[in-house]
Amino acid sequence: MTKTEIDKLFEVGKKILDYYGSPFDIKIGNAKRSWGCCNYIQRTIKISSWALQNESYEECYQTLIHEIAHALNRIGEGHGYEWKTTCQMLGLLNPQRGRATEKEIDYGAKYLLVCKSCGWKRERFRRPKRTNYSCPICDAKYNPKYKLEFIERR
What's this model's pTM, rounded to 2 decimal places? Predict the structure, then answer.
């Protein structure tokens, strides 16, 4: 997205928050795997700088609306009925938890955990303190049969 589009996105978001009398502010965050975050204590909505640089205006707009819906609901509502109703009121196309798209994304993490059985992957930006993880898809509990392979990418 261009600087102009980011400014427009934040302006639209602020107008929506002002319309509903919300004290929340919109900022750019550093997260890579989560595109947006609503912090009730700091009264901020953060949109990932990674998403702003790599995703379309529409995807970032949908993420912003998702987070505004959280800000307009009470703490602990999560992705429940009231949140979904607020999303629909705000015009969110597909109220759901998670990313706006299902495409596989390489976030450029330094470390990778991979299951040899099913191919499940989990990126890590910091070196894990332990490396004896097992695949959560193959078995919900730790199972050495499905131990994840630890790979350092760089």
Answer: 0.68
3-state DSSP call for residue 111?
strand
Residue 43 has pLDDT above 80, yes or no: yes
- List the domains of the chain with CATH numbers: 3-90 (3.30.2010.10), 111-152 (no CATH)
Burial of residue 64 (CB within 10 Å: 0-12, 13-18, 19+) is buried
Return left, alpha or beta for 91; rule: phi > 0 is left, psi -120 to 50 is alpha, else beta.
Answer: left
What token pair was written down for 69? 């819906």
Contacts of 1 (CB under 8 A, 6+ apart): 9, 52, 53, 55, 56, 57, 60
